[in-house]
Protein backbone atom coordinates (compact mmCIF):
# COMPACT_ATOMS: atom_id res chain seq x y z
CA UNK A 1 0.00 0.00 0.00
CA UNK A 2 2.73 2.38 1.07
CA UNK A 3 4.72 1.33 -1.95
CA UNK A 4 1.91 2.12 -4.29
CA UNK A 5 1.33 5.50 -2.70
CA UNK A 6 4.96 6.46 -2.88
CA UNK A 7 5.18 5.37 -6.48
CA UNK A 8 2.16 7.51 -7.24
CA UNK A 9 3.78 10.45 -5.49
CA UNK A 10 6.94 9.89 -7.47
CA UNK A 11 4.93 9.89 -10.65
CA UNK A 12 3.23 13.09 -9.71
CA UNK A 13 6.58 14.64 -8.92
CA UNK A 14 8.23 13.41 -12.06
CA UNK A 15 5.47 14.56 -14.32
CA UNK A 16 4.97 17.83 -12.51
CA UNK A 17 8.69 18.41 -12.64
CA UNK A 18 8.77 18.08 -16.37
CA UNK A 19 5.47 19.78 -16.88
CA UNK A 20 6.84 22.97 -15.50
CA UNK A 21 9.86 22.74 -17.71
CA UNK A 22 12.46 22.88 -14.98
CA UNK A 23 15.65 24.41 -16.37
CA UNK A 24 18.01 22.32 -14.27
CA UNK A 25 17.57 18.82 -15.57
CA UNK A 26 20.41 16.53 -14.57
CA UNK A 27 23.18 16.84 -17.07
CA UNK A 28 23.07 13.26 -18.17
CA UNK A 29 19.43 13.69 -19.16
CA UNK A 30 20.12 16.81 -21.13
CA UNK A 31 22.55 14.78 -23.15
CA UNK A 32 19.77 12.45 -24.11
CA UNK A 33 17.42 15.23 -24.90
CA UNK A 34 19.83 17.42 -26.79
CA UNK A 35 22.12 14.96 -28.43
CA UNK A 36 20.23 12.01 -29.81
CA UNK A 37 23.40 10.89 -31.61
CA UNK A 38 24.71 9.77 -28.23
CA UNK A 39 22.05 7.07 -28.19
CA UNK A 40 24.22 4.45 -29.78
CA UNK A 41 27.26 5.02 -27.60
CA UNK A 42 27.33 2.96 -24.43
CA UNK A 43 26.46 5.00 -21.36
CA UNK A 44 27.40 4.10 -17.84
CA UNK A 45 23.79 4.65 -16.82
CA UNK A 46 22.42 2.64 -19.68
CA UNK A 47 21.02 3.30 -23.11
CA UNK A 48 18.15 5.64 -23.89
CA UNK A 49 15.92 2.58 -24.17
CA UNK A 50 17.08 1.30 -20.78
CA UNK A 51 16.40 4.64 -19.11
CA UNK A 52 12.89 4.86 -20.57
CA UNK A 53 12.05 1.27 -19.80
CA UNK A 54 13.24 1.62 -16.19
CA UNK A 55 11.25 4.85 -15.81
CA UNK A 56 8.10 3.11 -17.08
CA UNK A 57 8.50 0.37 -14.48
CA UNK A 58 8.55 2.91 -11.62
CA UNK A 59 6.01 5.34 -12.98
CA UNK A 60 3.25 3.07 -14.27
CA UNK A 61 0.80 2.57 -11.44
CA UNK A 62 -2.83 1.56 -11.44
CA UNK A 63 -5.34 4.27 -10.61
CA UNK A 64 -6.96 4.47 -7.19
CA UNK A 65 -10.38 3.66 -8.55
CA UNK A 66 -10.29 0.80 -11.03
CA UNK A 67 -12.90 -0.75 -13.26
CA UNK A 68 -14.44 -3.89 -11.86
CA UNK A 69 -16.57 -5.07 -14.77
CA UNK A 70 -15.90 -4.39 -18.42
CA UNK A 71 -18.14 -5.55 -21.26
CA UNK A 72 -16.45 -5.97 -24.62
CA UNK A 73 -18.04 -6.52 -28.03
CA UNK A 74 -18.59 -7.27 -30.81
CA UNK A 75 -16.30 -9.36 -32.98
CA UNK A 76 -14.51 -12.58 -32.24
CA UNK A 77 -13.08 -15.37 -34.32
CA UNK A 78 -10.28 -17.88 -34.63
CA UNK A 79 -7.30 -16.75 -36.69
CA UNK A 80 -5.72 -19.58 -38.63
CA UNK A 81 -2.27 -18.66 -39.88
CA UNK A 82 -0.98 -20.98 -42.57
CA UNK A 83 1.39 -21.03 -45.55
CA UNK A 84 -0.67 -19.76 -48.49
CA UNK A 85 1.13 -21.73 -51.16
CA UNK A 86 1.18 -24.85 -48.97
CA UNK A 87 -2.55 -24.71 -48.34
CA UNK A 88 -3.48 -24.08 -51.98
CA UNK A 89 -1.27 -26.98 -53.07
CA UNK A 90 -2.86 -29.20 -50.44
CA UNK A 91 -6.24 -28.24 -51.92
CA UNK A 92 -4.98 -29.44 -55.32
CA UNK A 93 -5.06 -25.97 -56.86
CA UNK A 94 -2.61 -25.27 -59.70
CA UNK A 95 -0.71 -22.00 -59.95
CA UNK A 96 -1.65 -19.58 -62.72
CA UNK A 97 -2.23 -15.91 -63.47
CA UNK A 98 -3.30 -13.45 -60.81
CA UNK A 99 -6.60 -11.55 -60.89
CA UNK A 100 -8.13 -9.47 -58.11
CA UNK A 101 -11.72 -10.18 -57.03
CA UNK A 102 -13.71 -7.85 -54.76
CA UNK A 103 -15.53 -10.84 -53.30
CA UNK A 104 -14.33 -14.43 -53.51
CA UNK A 105 -16.97 -16.87 -54.75
CA UNK A 106 -14.85 -19.96 -55.27
CA UNK A 107 -11.52 -21.69 -54.78
CA UNK A 108 -10.48 -20.33 -58.21
CA UNK A 109 -11.25 -16.73 -57.19
CA UNK A 110 -9.21 -17.31 -54.04
CA UNK A 111 -6.24 -18.60 -55.99
CA UNK A 112 -6.34 -15.72 -58.50
CA UNK A 113 -6.63 -13.04 -55.83
CA UNK A 114 -3.94 -14.65 -53.70
CA UNK A 115 -1.54 -14.68 -56.68
CA UNK A 116 -2.47 -11.10 -57.56
CA UNK A 117 -1.39 -9.87 -54.13
CA UNK A 118 1.48 -12.30 -53.65
CA UNK A 119 3.28 -11.05 -56.77
CA UNK A 120 2.96 -7.51 -55.41
CA UNK A 121 3.86 -8.44 -51.86
CA UNK A 122 0.77 -6.49 -50.76
CA UNK A 123 -1.60 -7.22 -47.89
CA UNK A 124 -5.30 -7.77 -48.68
CA UNK A 125 -8.50 -8.85 -46.96
CA UNK A 126 -11.45 -10.42 -48.77
CA UNK A 127 -14.89 -11.84 -48.07
CA UNK A 128 -15.57 -15.40 -49.23
CA UNK A 129 -19.23 -15.69 -50.18
CA UNK A 130 -19.85 -19.44 -50.42
CA UNK A 131 -20.35 -20.83 -46.89
CA UNK A 132 -19.85 -24.53 -47.73
CA UNK A 133 -16.74 -23.98 -49.81
CA UNK A 134 -15.39 -21.72 -47.09
CA UNK A 135 -15.97 -24.32 -44.37
CA UNK A 136 -14.10 -26.92 -46.45
CA UNK A 137 -11.15 -24.59 -46.89
CA UNK A 138 -11.19 -23.60 -43.22
CA UNK A 139 -11.10 -27.23 -42.14
CA UNK A 140 -8.22 -27.96 -44.50
CA UNK A 141 -6.38 -24.89 -43.17
CA UNK A 142 -6.88 -25.72 -39.49
CA UNK A 143 -5.61 -29.26 -40.09
CA UNK A 144 -2.72 -28.26 -42.33
CA UNK A 145 0.60 -29.23 -40.69
CA UNK A 146 2.15 -26.24 -39.01
CA UNK A 147 -1.05 -24.16 -39.05
CA UNK A 148 -1.20 -21.86 -36.02
CA UNK A 149 -4.49 -21.03 -34.32
CA UNK A 150 -4.95 -17.77 -32.38
CA UNK A 151 -7.74 -15.91 -30.67
CA UNK A 152 -8.82 -13.32 -33.23
CA UNK A 153 -11.24 -10.43 -33.62
CA UNK A 154 -10.64 -7.05 -32.01
CA UNK A 155 -13.15 -7.52 -29.20
CA UNK A 156 -11.83 -10.96 -28.23
CA UNK A 157 -8.27 -9.62 -28.24
CA UNK A 158 -9.25 -6.71 -26.00
CA UNK A 159 -11.08 -9.16 -23.73
CA UNK A 160 -8.00 -11.37 -23.48
CA UNK A 161 -5.83 -8.40 -22.55
CA UNK A 162 -8.28 -7.17 -19.90
CA UNK A 163 -8.58 -10.69 -18.48
CA UNK A 164 -4.90 -10.65 -17.64
CA UNK A 165 -5.89 -8.45 -14.67
CA UNK A 166 -7.24 -10.87 -12.05
CA UNK A 167 -9.60 -8.38 -10.39
CA UNK A 168 -11.36 -7.47 -13.58
CA UNK A 169 -14.51 -9.27 -14.68
CA UNK A 170 -14.78 -9.37 -18.45
CA UNK A 171 -17.89 -10.08 -20.49
CA UNK A 172 -17.19 -10.90 -24.12
CA UNK A 173 -20.01 -10.71 -26.63
CA UNK A 174 -19.36 -11.90 -30.10
CA UNK A 175 -19.69 -15.12 -32.05
CA UNK A 176 -17.87 -17.67 -29.89
CA UNK A 177 -17.61 -21.19 -31.32
CA UNK A 178 -16.22 -24.26 -29.50
CA UNK A 179 -12.62 -23.78 -30.61
CA UNK A 180 -12.53 -20.13 -29.60
CA UNK A 181 -14.26 -20.85 -26.29
CA UNK A 182 -11.53 -23.33 -25.46
CA UNK A 183 -8.82 -20.78 -26.29
CA UNK A 184 -10.28 -17.88 -24.29
CA UNK A 185 -8.99 -16.93 -20.85
CA UNK A 186 -11.00 -18.66 -18.11
CA UNK A 187 -11.80 -15.34 -16.56
CA UNK A 188 -13.83 -14.24 -19.59
CA UNK A 189 -17.58 -14.67 -19.30
CA UNK A 190 -19.40 -15.41 -22.53
CA UNK A 191 -23.18 -15.00 -22.41
CA UNK A 192 -25.00 -18.14 -23.61
CA UNK A 193 -26.53 -16.19 -26.51
CA UNK A 194 -23.04 -15.56 -27.86
CA UNK A 195 -22.12 -19.24 -28.02
CA UNK A 196 -22.41 -20.82 -31.47
CA UNK A 197 -22.04 -24.31 -32.83
CA UNK A 198 -19.35 -23.41 -35.32
CA UNK A 199 -16.42 -21.07 -35.12
CA UNK A 200 -15.89 -18.14 -37.39
CA UNK A 201 -12.49 -18.60 -38.95
CA UNK A 202 -10.25 -15.96 -40.43
CA UNK A 203 -7.76 -17.57 -42.73
CA UNK A 204 -4.44 -15.81 -42.93
CA UNK A 205 -2.36 -17.05 -45.83
CA UNK A 206 1.25 -16.10 -45.29
CA UNK A 207 4.08 -16.01 -47.78
CA UNK A 208 7.75 -15.28 -47.33
CA UNK A 209 9.95 -12.79 -49.17
CA UNK A 210 11.18 -14.45 -52.36
CA UNK A 211 8.76 -17.40 -52.04
CA UNK A 212 7.82 -18.89 -55.43
CA UNK A 213 4.73 -20.60 -56.79
CA UNK A 214 4.59 -21.36 -60.50
CA UNK A 215 5.80 -18.22 -62.22
CA UNK A 216 4.87 -16.01 -59.25
CA UNK A 217 7.46 -14.72 -56.83
CA UNK A 218 6.74 -12.60 -53.74
CA UNK A 219 8.92 -9.47 -53.55
CA UNK A 220 8.37 -9.32 -49.79
CA UNK A 221 6.66 -11.24 -47.01
CA UNK A 222 2.98 -10.48 -46.46
CA UNK A 223 -0.41 -12.05 -45.83
CA UNK A 224 -3.70 -12.54 -47.64
CA UNK A 225 -6.67 -12.68 -45.29
CA UNK A 226 -10.15 -13.98 -46.09
CA UNK A 227 -13.19 -15.05 -44.13
CA UNK A 228 -16.85 -15.81 -44.33
CA UNK A 229 -18.19 -14.02 -41.31
CA UNK A 230 -21.87 -14.42 -40.81
CA UNK A 231 -22.22 -13.19 -37.25
CA UNK A 232 -19.33 -10.78 -37.36
CA UNK A 233 -20.86 -9.28 -40.46
CA UNK A 234 -24.37 -9.14 -39.05
CA UNK A 235 -25.96 -7.07 -36.37
CA UNK A 236 -26.76 -10.09 -34.19
CA UNK A 237 -23.65 -9.78 -32.04
CA UNK A 238 -24.36 -6.15 -31.30
CA UNK A 239 -27.92 -6.97 -30.27
CA UNK A 240 -26.75 -9.77 -28.01
CA UNK A 241 -24.15 -7.48 -26.61
CA UNK A 242 -26.58 -4.75 -25.72
CA UNK A 243 -29.01 -7.28 -24.27
CA UNK A 244 -26.34 -8.75 -22.00
CA UNK A 245 -25.42 -5.43 -20.46
CA UNK A 246 -28.50 -5.22 -18.26
CA UNK A 247 -27.57 -8.28 -16.29
CA UNK A 248 -23.82 -7.79 -16.28
CA UNK A 249 -23.90 -4.15 -15.18
CA UNK A 250 -20.49 -3.14 -16.51
CA UNK A 251 -18.78 0.05 -15.44
CA UNK A 252 -17.12 0.34 -18.84
CA UNK A 253 -18.21 -0.76 -22.31
CA UNK A 254 -15.67 -1.31 -25.05
CA UNK A 255 -16.86 -1.52 -28.64
CA UNK A 256 -14.47 -2.76 -31.24
CA UNK A 257 -14.69 -4.48 -34.57
CA UNK A 258 -17.70 -2.54 -35.78
CA UNK A 259 -15.94 -2.27 -39.12
CA UNK A 260 -16.54 -5.98 -39.57
CA UNK A 261 -20.15 -5.16 -40.15
CA UNK A 262 -19.15 -3.11 -43.08
CA UNK A 263 -16.59 -4.77 -45.32
CA UNK A 264 -17.52 -8.41 -45.46
CA UNK A 265 -21.24 -8.03 -45.30
CA UNK A 266 -21.58 -5.14 -47.67
CA UNK A 267 -22.85 -7.12 -50.63
CA UNK A 268 -25.52 -8.77 -48.54
CA UNK A 269 -26.60 -5.53 -46.98
CA UNK A 270 -26.82 -3.76 -50.26
CA UNK A 271 -28.93 -6.53 -51.71
CA UNK A 272 -31.25 -6.32 -48.73
CA UNK A 273 -31.45 -2.57 -48.91
CA UNK A 274 -32.64 -2.73 -52.50
CA UNK A 275 -35.83 -4.33 -51.23
CA UNK A 276 -36.65 -1.32 -49.12
CA UNK A 277 -37.36 1.19 -51.84
CA UNK A 278 -39.31 4.29 -51.00
CA UNK A 279 -37.84 4.65 -47.57
CA UNK A 280 -36.32 8.00 -46.83
CA UNK A 281 -33.55 6.06 -45.21
CA UNK A 282 -32.80 4.19 -48.37
CA UNK A 283 -29.10 3.91 -48.89
CA UNK A 284 -28.18 3.72 -45.26
CA UNK A 285 -25.97 0.82 -44.39
CA UNK A 286 -27.06 -1.18 -41.34
CA UNK A 287 -24.51 0.12 -38.95
CA UNK A 288 -25.23 3.63 -40.08
CA UNK A 289 -28.90 3.24 -39.41
CA UNK A 290 -28.13 1.67 -36.09
CA UNK A 291 -26.15 4.72 -35.17
CA UNK A 292 -28.62 7.10 -36.73
CA UNK A 293 -31.33 5.73 -34.52
CA UNK A 294 -29.00 5.63 -31.59
CA UNK A 295 -28.34 9.32 -32.09
CA UNK A 296 -31.98 10.15 -32.75
CA UNK A 297 -33.12 8.35 -29.62
CA UNK A 298 -30.47 10.08 -27.60
CA UNK A 299 -31.21 13.49 -28.98
CA UNK A 300 -34.93 13.16 -28.67
CA UNK A 301 -34.66 11.41 -25.32
CA UNK A 302 -37.00 8.64 -26.45
CA UNK A 303 -37.56 6.21 -23.62
CA UNK A 304 -38.22 3.11 -25.69
CA UNK A 305 -36.12 4.23 -28.61
CA UNK A 306 -38.90 3.93 -31.12
CA UNK A 307 -36.54 5.68 -33.46
CA UNK A 308 -34.34 2.67 -33.37
CA UNK A 309 -37.13 0.29 -34.25
CA UNK A 310 -38.26 2.51 -37.11
CA UNK A 311 -34.89 2.78 -38.67
CA UNK A 312 -34.17 -0.85 -38.05
CA UNK A 313 -37.40 -2.06 -39.61
CA UNK A 314 -37.24 0.26 -42.54
CA UNK A 315 -33.71 -0.56 -43.44
CA UNK A 316 -33.03 -4.15 -42.95
CA UNK A 317 -35.31 -6.01 -40.66
CA UNK A 318 -35.89 -9.20 -42.53
CA UNK A 319 -36.70 -12.44 -40.74
CA UNK A 320 -34.73 -14.35 -43.28
CA UNK A 321 -31.65 -12.39 -42.51
CA UNK A 322 -31.71 -11.09 -39.00
CA UNK A 323 -33.33 -12.14 -35.78
CA UNK A 324 -36.04 -9.84 -34.54
CA UNK A 325 -34.86 -7.08 -32.32
CA UNK A 326 -35.95 -7.34 -28.74
CA UNK A 327 -37.39 -4.42 -26.87
CA UNK A 328 -34.94 -5.09 -24.08
CA UNK A 329 -32.08 -4.50 -26.45
CA UNK A 330 -33.54 -1.19 -27.40
CA UNK A 331 -33.93 0.05 -23.88
CA UNK A 332 -30.50 -1.26 -23.01
CA UNK A 333 -29.05 0.95 -25.72
CA UNK A 334 -30.38 4.02 -24.00
CA UNK A 335 -29.05 2.69 -20.72
CA UNK A 336 -25.53 2.43 -22.05
CA UNK A 337 -25.46 6.13 -22.57
CA UNK A 338 -26.81 7.34 -19.35
CA UNK A 339 -24.30 5.91 -16.92
CA UNK A 340 -21.64 3.85 -18.56
CA UNK A 341 -18.69 5.26 -20.45
CA UNK A 342 -18.19 3.70 -23.89
CA UNK A 343 -14.83 3.31 -25.53
CA UNK A 344 -14.94 2.84 -29.29
CA UNK A 345 -11.86 1.35 -30.89
CA UNK A 346 -11.54 2.56 -34.44
CA UNK A 347 -8.35 0.61 -35.10
CA UNK A 348 -8.15 -0.90 -38.57
CA UNK A 349 -11.16 0.87 -39.97
CA UNK A 350 -9.45 1.37 -43.25
CA UNK A 351 -12.61 2.20 -45.14
CA UNK A 352 -12.91 5.90 -45.81
CA UNK A 353 -16.66 5.72 -46.54
CA UNK A 354 -17.21 4.13 -43.19
CA UNK A 355 -15.22 6.84 -41.45
CA UNK A 356 -17.33 9.38 -43.27
CA UNK A 357 -20.49 7.75 -42.05
CA UNK A 358 -19.14 7.67 -38.51
CA UNK A 359 -18.60 11.40 -38.72
CA UNK A 360 -21.86 12.20 -40.46
CA UNK A 361 -23.92 10.11 -38.10
CA UNK A 362 -22.16 11.82 -35.26
CA UNK A 363 -21.00 8.72 -33.53
CA UNK A 364 -18.08 10.56 -31.98
CA UNK A 365 -20.16 12.64 -29.59
CA UNK A 366 -22.05 9.67 -28.16
CA UNK A 367 -19.05 7.70 -27.00
CA UNK A 368 -16.79 8.84 -24.15
CA UNK A 369 -13.52 7.64 -25.52
CA UNK A 370 -11.98 6.54 -28.80
CA UNK A 371 -8.78 4.75 -29.75
CA UNK A 372 -7.22 5.16 -33.18
CA UNK A 373 -4.01 5.19 -35.18
CA UNK A 374 -2.52 7.73 -37.58
CA UNK A 375 -4.41 6.42 -40.60
CA UNK A 376 -7.82 6.67 -38.96
CA UNK A 377 -6.93 10.05 -37.49
CA UNK A 378 -6.23 11.42 -40.96
CA UNK A 379 -9.41 9.81 -42.35
CA UNK A 380 -11.44 11.51 -39.62
CA UNK A 381 -9.92 14.86 -40.41
CA UNK A 382 -10.48 14.38 -44.13
CA UNK A 383 -14.06 13.27 -43.57
CA UNK A 384 -14.80 16.38 -41.55
CA UNK A 385 -12.48 18.76 -43.41
CA UNK A 386 -10.45 19.24 -40.28
CA UNK A 387 -6.82 20.36 -39.88
CA UNK A 388 -4.25 18.94 -42.30
CA UNK A 389 -6.96 17.16 -44.29
CA UNK A 390 -5.03 18.18 -47.42
CA UNK A 391 -2.38 15.57 -46.52
CA UNK A 392 -2.80 12.49 -48.71
CA UNK A 393 -0.88 10.35 -46.23
CA UNK A 394 1.66 10.68 -43.44
CA UNK A 395 5.28 10.55 -44.43
CA UNK A 396 7.46 8.73 -41.93
CA UNK A 397 6.74 9.37 -38.24
CA UNK A 398 3.56 11.52 -38.11
CA UNK A 399 4.41 15.05 -37.00
CA UNK A 400 3.40 15.55 -33.34
CA UNK A 401 2.21 19.12 -33.97
CA UNK A 402 -0.14 18.03 -36.75
CA UNK A 403 -1.46 15.07 -34.76
CA UNK A 404 -2.03 17.40 -31.81
CA UNK A 405 -3.97 19.82 -34.06
CA UNK A 406 -6.30 17.07 -35.28
CA UNK A 407 -6.84 15.63 -31.79
CA UNK A 408 -7.74 19.07 -30.46
CA UNK A 409 -10.09 19.63 -33.39
CA UNK A 410 -11.92 16.33 -32.75
CA UNK A 411 -12.38 17.11 -29.06
CA UNK A 412 -13.50 20.67 -29.79
CA UNK A 413 -15.76 19.86 -32.74
CA UNK A 414 -17.15 16.53 -31.64
CA UNK A 415 -16.27 16.31 -27.97
CA UNK A 416 -17.03 17.95 -24.70
CA UNK A 417 -14.19 20.42 -24.68
CA UNK A 418 -16.81 23.09 -24.13
CA UNK A 419 -18.71 22.11 -20.96
CA UNK A 420 -22.00 23.36 -22.41
CA UNK A 421 -21.70 20.83 -25.25
CA UNK A 422 -23.94 17.77 -25.18
CA UNK A 423 -21.22 15.50 -26.50
CA UNK A 424 -19.79 12.76 -24.28
CA UNK A 425 -16.42 12.39 -25.98
CA UNK A 426 -13.66 13.42 -23.58
CA UNK A 427 -10.78 11.07 -24.31
CA UNK A 428 -8.73 10.02 -27.36
CA UNK A 429 -5.97 7.43 -27.19
CA UNK A 430 -3.85 7.95 -30.29
CA UNK A 431 -1.33 5.27 -31.19
CA UNK A 432 1.22 5.20 -33.96
CA UNK A 433 4.31 3.02 -34.25
CA UNK A 434 6.78 5.55 -32.78
CA UNK A 435 4.74 7.30 -30.06
CA UNK A 436 1.35 7.52 -28.33
CA UNK A 437 -0.70 10.50 -27.18
CA UNK A 438 -3.56 10.46 -24.71
CA UNK A 439 -5.65 13.60 -25.18
CA UNK A 440 -8.28 14.27 -22.53
CA UNK A 441 -10.69 17.07 -21.78
CA UNK A 442 -9.73 18.52 -18.40
CA UNK A 443 -11.71 17.31 -15.42
CA UNK A 444 -12.96 13.96 -16.71
CA UNK A 445 -10.03 11.55 -16.56
CA UNK A 446 -7.18 10.78 -14.18
CA UNK A 447 -3.91 8.83 -14.27
CA UNK A 448 -3.28 9.78 -17.92
CA UNK A 449 0.53 9.69 -17.67
CA UNK A 450 0.51 6.10 -16.39
CA UNK A 451 -2.17 5.14 -18.91
CA UNK A 452 -0.25 6.40 -21.94
CA UNK A 453 2.97 4.77 -20.72
CA UNK A 454 1.19 1.48 -20.03
CA UNK A 455 -0.15 1.46 -23.59
CA UNK A 456 3.33 2.10 -24.98
CA UNK A 457 4.85 -0.58 -22.78
CA UNK A 458 2.42 -3.21 -24.00
CA UNK A 459 3.16 -2.23 -27.61
CA UNK A 460 6.85 -2.94 -26.95
CA UNK A 461 6.39 -6.20 -25.11
CA UNK A 462 3.65 -7.68 -27.27
CA UNK A 463 5.36 -6.92 -30.58
CA UNK A 464 8.54 -8.62 -29.31
CA UNK A 465 6.50 -11.49 -27.86
CA UNK A 466 7.95 -10.87 -24.37
CA UNK A 467 6.51 -10.35 -20.92
CA UNK A 468 8.68 -7.34 -20.14
CA UNK A 469 10.62 -4.83 -22.21
CA UNK A 470 14.06 -5.99 -23.31
CA UNK A 471 15.97 -2.73 -23.97
CA UNK A 472 18.36 -4.48 -26.35
CA UNK A 473 15.50 -5.55 -28.63
CA UNK A 474 13.80 -2.18 -28.97
CA UNK A 475 14.62 1.28 -30.26
CA UNK A 476 13.27 4.81 -30.02
CA UNK A 477 12.07 6.02 -33.42
CA UNK A 478 10.29 9.21 -32.41
CA UNK A 479 12.03 12.57 -32.16
CA UNK A 480 12.52 13.65 -28.54
CA UNK A 481 11.90 17.27 -29.54
CA UNK A 482 8.65 18.36 -31.12
CA UNK A 483 6.02 21.10 -31.10
CA UNK A 484 2.61 21.32 -29.49
CA UNK A 485 1.07 22.48 -32.77
CA UNK A 486 1.98 22.65 -36.44
CA UNK A 487 1.03 26.31 -36.74
CA UNK A 488 1.54 29.29 -34.41
CA UNK A 489 1.26 29.77 -31.51
CA UNK A 490 3.23 26.69 -30.63
CA UNK A 491 5.33 25.47 -27.80
CA UNK A 492 8.64 23.68 -28.22
CA UNK A 493 8.58 20.48 -26.20
CA UNK A 494 11.07 17.80 -25.24
CA UNK A 495 10.73 14.34 -23.81
CA UNK A 496 12.74 13.55 -20.70
CA UNK A 497 13.75 9.86 -20.88
CA UNK A 498 13.83 9.51 -17.09
CA UNK A 499 10.25 10.76 -16.81
CA UNK A 500 9.13 9.81 -20.29
CA UNK A 501 5.80 11.61 -20.50
CA UNK A 502 5.54 15.09 -21.95
CA UNK A 503 2.36 16.95 -21.13
CA UNK A 504 0.95 20.14 -22.63
CA UNK A 505 -2.34 21.96 -22.67
CA UNK A 506 -4.35 23.60 -25.43
CA UNK A 507 -7.71 25.10 -24.61
CA UNK A 508 -9.49 22.70 -22.26
CA UNK A 509 -7.54 19.69 -23.46
CA UNK A 510 -4.42 18.14 -21.93
CA UNK A 511 -2.09 15.98 -24.01
CA UNK A 512 0.21 13.29 -22.61
CA UNK A 513 2.83 11.88 -24.97
CA UNK A 514 5.25 9.02 -24.53
CA UNK A 515 7.50 7.35 -27.07
CA UNK A 516 7.24 3.69 -27.97
CA UNK A 517 10.23 1.43 -27.58
CA UNK A 518 9.71 -0.08 -31.01
CA UNK A 519 10.48 -3.76 -31.30
CA UNK A 520 13.29 -4.21 -33.83
CA UNK A 521 12.15 -7.67 -34.89
CA UNK A 522 8.44 -7.87 -34.25
CA UNK A 523 6.97 -11.35 -34.01
CA UNK A 524 3.28 -10.61 -34.14
CA UNK A 525 1.69 -7.23 -34.72
CA UNK A 526 -1.92 -8.41 -35.14
CA UNK A 527 -4.12 -6.82 -32.50
CA UNK A 528 -1.45 -4.43 -31.26
CA UNK A 529 -3.83 -1.46 -31.39
CA UNK A 530 -6.40 -3.41 -29.38
CA UNK A 531 -3.83 -4.31 -26.71
CA UNK A 532 -2.64 -0.69 -26.48
CA UNK A 533 -6.15 0.66 -26.01
CA UNK A 534 -7.12 -2.06 -23.55
CA UNK A 535 -4.05 -1.43 -21.42
CA UNK A 536 -4.59 2.34 -21.60
CA UNK A 537 -8.13 1.86 -20.34
CA UNK A 538 -7.11 -0.38 -17.44
CA UNK A 539 -4.78 2.38 -16.22
CA UNK A 540 -7.29 5.18 -16.80
CA UNK A 541 -9.61 6.52 -14.19
CA UNK A 542 -12.90 8.21 -14.86
CA UNK A 543 -13.44 11.13 -12.53
CA UNK A 544 -16.85 12.05 -11.28
CA UNK A 545 -17.80 14.83 -13.67
CA UNK A 546 -17.73 18.28 -12.17
CA UNK A 547 -21.07 20.03 -12.27
CA UNK A 548 -20.94 23.23 -14.29
C1 LIG B 1 -35.35 12.18 -20.54
O1 LIG B 1 -36.37 11.31 -20.13
C2 LIG B 1 -36.37 10.98 -18.74
C3 LIG B 1 -37.51 10.00 -18.47
O2 LIG B 1 -37.84 9.26 -19.57
C4 LIG B 1 -36.51 12.24 -17.90
O3 LIG B 1 -36.43 11.92 -16.52
C5 LIG B 1 -35.41 13.22 -18.27
O4 LIG B 1 -35.60 14.43 -17.56
C6 LIG B 1 -35.42 13.50 -19.76
N1 LIG B 1 -34.29 14.34 -20.12
C7 LIG B 1 -34.41 15.42 -20.89
C8 LIG B 1 -33.14 16.16 -21.16
O5 LIG B 1 -35.47 15.81 -21.35
C1 LIG C 1 -13.28 25.74 -22.00
O1 LIG C 1 -14.06 25.70 -20.83
C2 LIG C 1 -14.65 26.95 -20.49
C3 LIG C 1 -15.41 26.77 -19.19
O2 LIG C 1 -14.69 26.05 -18.25
C4 LIG C 1 -15.55 27.42 -21.60
O3 LIG C 1 -16.09 28.69 -21.28
C5 LIG C 1 -14.79 27.50 -22.91
O4 LIG C 1 -15.63 27.82 -23.96
C6 LIG C 1 -14.11 26.18 -23.19
N1 LIG C 1 -13.25 26.30 -24.36
C7 LIG C 1 -13.41 25.58 -25.46
C8 LIG C 1 -12.43 25.86 -26.55
O5 LIG C 1 -14.29 24.77 -25.61
Automatic annotation (TrEMBL):
Short name of any one Pfam family annotated for the protein: ADP_PFK_GK
Gene Ontology BP terms: glucose metabolic process; glycolytic process
Keyword Metal-binding among record annotations: yes
PANTHER family: ADP-DEPENDENT GLUCOKINASE
Origin: domain of life: Eukaryota
GO molecular function: ADP-specific glucokinase activity; metal ion binding
Keyword tRNA processing annotated: no
Gene3D superfamilies assigned to the protein according to its UniProt record, in alphabetical order: 3.40.1190.20
A GO cellular component entry from the record: endoplasmic reticulum
Identification of the protein by name: ADP-dependent glucokinase
Keywords: Glycolysis, Kinase, Magnesium, Metal-binding, Signal, Transferase
Leader peptide range in chain numbering: 1-21
